[in-house]
C-alpha cells in the first residue's frame, strides 16, 4: 500500500502507538465518549428525564465506532461531529438527548483534550523518559572519564564525559517535568460560551456548576470563559514545551554526532542493526542521530505553527484551528520517531577511551588556566614575582604546541610557593576536571 507520509509507511512501526490516540479514528472514538458521557450526565443529574441501569451505561460506554458507517453518514452530513451525533442516535436509549445543548466545539475541544492527554501520558512521555534514563545511565557510568572540552571548537578546560551527558539529562528532565504538569482544559457552554440556549430551555438549572462538574468528571480542567471554542492556550503551552524538549534533544544529537566524529564514541555496527556506507566498508554512519535531527526539525516546525496558530480565533469562531489540529499527530509522530532513533543510537555506542586519552595528552596548553589562577591567588596572598600571569601564560600557550616538559619547566621557573608549585606539577590535562564527577549527583535532585 502506498502512503503519502513516511510516518504511515517507512516509519510506521516506530510511531504506531500514537495511532490509538491521535488518528482520525481515535478522535472519533473520543467524540463518541464525550457525547455518551454528556448524555449519561444529563440524565443522572436529573437535568433531563430518564434512567439508565448499570448495564445500559456499560453498553453505551462500550459502543464501538464503525469507521465505514461513520464515513457514510459524514458523506451525507458533510460535518464530522454531526455524523457522530447521528451515529449515536442509532444506538442509544434516548436518541433525542444526544448532542443536546452542545455546539460541535463543545464535543471537539473535550475530545482533543482527552486524546492529546492520553497520547502524552501513554506514549510520548514514557518514550522520552526512557531516553533520558539512557542518557542518565551514560552520565553515571562515565562520570569519571576525562574528556577534553571544546569551547568555540577549540581545546578548552577538560570535563568528564559523564558530566556532559548529565547536562543534557538535567535539561531534558526539566522539560519533561513541565510537560507532565500540563493542564488539559475543556469547556461545554454552547455556541458562543454564554449558555444562551441552555438558559432559554431550562432556566432553573445551574448550568455553570454542571458545566464545571462535567468537564472535571472527564479528568480535565474547566475553562470558565470562552467564545465558541476553548481557547487552546493550554495546547500552545504544551507544544512549546515539547518543541523545547525537541530542540535540546537536537543539541544532544549534534553533540553526540561530533563526539562520534572525534572517535570519543565508537558505534557498534551490530547494535545499530544497519549497514554503514554503501561503498566504503570501513564506515559506520551515525544515521540514528542524523535521522533524529531531521525529524526533530520537522516536529518543531509543526509544533511552532500549532502553538502560534491555535491561540488566535477571529472574534467568536473561525475554522483555522480545525484544520491545524489535524496535524497534531504528525507533529508528535516526528518527535517520537526522533526519540526512538536517539534511544537506538545510544544503545549502540561504546566509549573511545584511547581517543579521549590521546587528545587530552596533546592538550597541555589547557593547564594555562589553572596556573594563571594559582598565580593570581598567590599574589593576593603576598607571593612576589606573580606579575602579569595572563600575559605570561598567553605568551607560552597561544599559537604554539605546548608539551608536558614545557609546561612543567614553566611552573618550576615561577618561584611560586613550594606547596602551590607541587600541586601544579601534579596536574595533567586528564586530571584537571575539577568537580565534574561530583556534579553528576545533581541528577538525583
Topology record:
Layout: H1 12-15, H2 19-22, H3 24-44, H4 54-61, H5 67-77, H6 80-89, H7 104-141, E1 146-151, E2 154-160, H8 161-180, E3 185-186, H9 196-201, H10 207-217, E4 221-222, H11 233-261, E5 265-267, H12 269-272, H13 287-310, H14 320-325, H15 328-347, E6 349-351, H16 353-361, H17 368-380, H18 389-397, H19 404-413, H20 418-425, H21 436-439
Parallel strand pairs: 3-4
Antiparallel strand pairs: 1-2, 5-6
Helix pairs in contact: 3-6, 3-7, 5-6, 7-8, 7-15, 8-11, 11-13, 13-15, 17-18
Can you describe this structure?
Keywords: Lyase, Purine biosynthesis. Belongs to the lyase 1 family. Adenylosuccinate lyase subfamily. The chain folds into 2 domains: about 260 residues, Fumarase C, Chain A, domain 2 (Up-down Bundle); about 80 residues, Ribonucleotide Reductase Protein R1, domain 1. The model has no long low-confidence stretch (mean pLDDT about 90). The strands form 3 sheets. A two-stranded antiparallel sheet has the order 1-2. Strands 3-4 form a two-stranded parallel ribbon. Strands 5-6 form a two-stranded antiparallel sheet. Helices cover about 60% and strands about 5% of the residues. Strand 1 and strand 2 form a beta hairpin. The longest helix is centred in the N-terminal third of the chain and has 38 residues. The chain starts with 11 loop residues before the first helix and ends in a 6-residue tail after the last helix. Helix 7 packs antiparallel against helix 8, helix 8 packs antiparallel against helix 11 and helix 17 runs antiparallel to helix 18. The chain is mostly helical and about 450 residues long.
Amino acid at each position: 500500500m502506498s502512503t503519502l507520509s513516511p510516518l504511515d509507511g517507512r516509519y510506521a512501526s516506530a510511531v504506531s502507538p500514537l495511532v490509538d490516540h491521535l488518528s482520525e479514528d481515535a478522535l472519533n472514538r473520543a467524540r463518541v465518549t464525550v457525547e455518551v458521557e454528556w448524555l449519561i450526565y444529563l440524565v443522572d443529574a436529573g437535568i433531563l428525564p430518564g434512567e439508565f441501569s448499570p448495564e445500559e451505561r456499560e453498553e453505551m460506554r462500550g459502543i464501538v465506532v464503525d469507521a465505514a458507517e461513520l464515513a457514510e453518514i459524514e458523506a451525507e452530513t458533510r460535518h464530522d461531529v454531526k455524523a457522530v451525533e447521528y451515529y449515536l442516535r442509532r444506538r442509544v436509549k434516548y436518541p433525542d438527548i444526544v448532542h443536546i445543548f452542545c455546539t460541535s466545539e463543545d464535543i471537539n475541544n473535550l475530545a482533543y483534550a482527552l486524546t492529546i492527554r492520553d497520547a502524552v501520558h501513554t506514549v510520548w512521555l514514557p518514550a522520552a523518559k526512557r531516553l533520558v534514563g539512557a542518557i542518565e545511565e551514560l552520565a553515571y557510568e562515565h562520570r569519571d572519564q576525562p574528556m577534553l572540552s571544546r569551547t568555540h571548537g577549540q581545546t578548552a578546560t577538560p570535563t568528564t564525559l559523564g558530566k556532559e551527558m548529565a547536562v543534557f539529562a538535567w535539561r531534558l528532565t526539566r522539560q519533561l517535568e513541565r510537560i507532565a504538569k500540563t493542564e488539559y482544559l475543556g469547556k461545554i457552554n454552547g455556541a458562543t460560551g454564554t449558555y444562551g440556549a441552555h438558559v432559554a430551555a431550562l432556566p432553573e438549572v445551574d448550568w455553570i456548576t454542571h458545566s464545571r462538574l462535567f468537564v472535571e468528571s472527564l479528568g480535565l480542567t474547566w475553562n470558565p470563559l470562552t467564545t465558541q471554542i476553548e481557547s487552546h492556550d493550554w495546547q500552545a503551552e504544551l507544544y512549546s514545551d515539547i518543541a523545547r524538549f525537541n530542540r535540546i534533544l537536537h543539541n544532544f544529537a549534534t553533540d553526540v554526532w561530533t563526539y562520534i566524529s572525534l572517535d570519543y564514541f565508537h558505534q557498534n555496527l551490530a547494535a545499530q542493526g544497519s549497514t554503514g556506507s554503501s561503498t566504503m566498508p570501513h564506515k559506520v554512519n551515525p544515521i540514528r542521530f542524523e535521522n533524529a535531527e531531521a525529524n526533530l526539525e520537522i516536529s518543531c516546525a509543526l509544533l511552532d505553527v500549532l502553538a502560534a496558530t491555535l491561540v488566535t480565533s477571529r472574534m467568536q469562531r473561525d475554522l483555522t484551528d480545525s484544520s491545524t489540529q489535524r496535524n497534531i499527530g504528525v507533529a508528535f509522530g516526528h518527535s517520537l520517531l526522533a526519540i526512538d532513533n536517539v534511544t537506538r543510537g545510544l544503545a549502540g555506542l561504546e566509549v573511545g577511551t584511547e581517543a579521549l586519552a590521546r587528545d587530552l595528552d596533546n592538550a597541555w596548553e589547557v593547564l594555562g588556566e589553572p596556573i594563571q589562577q594559582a598565580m593570581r591567588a598567590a599574589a593576593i596572598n603576598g607571593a612576589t614575582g606573580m606579575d602579569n600571569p595572563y600575559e605570561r601564560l598567553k605568551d607560552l600557550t597561544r599559537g604554539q604546541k605546548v608539551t608536558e616538559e614545557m609546561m612543567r619547566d614553566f611552573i618550576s621557573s615561577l618561584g611560586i610557593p613550594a606547596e602551590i608549585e607541587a600541586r601544579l606539577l601534579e596536574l595533567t590535562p586528564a586530571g584537571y576536571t575539577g568537580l565534574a564527577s561530583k556534579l553528576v549527583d545533581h541528577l538525583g535532585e
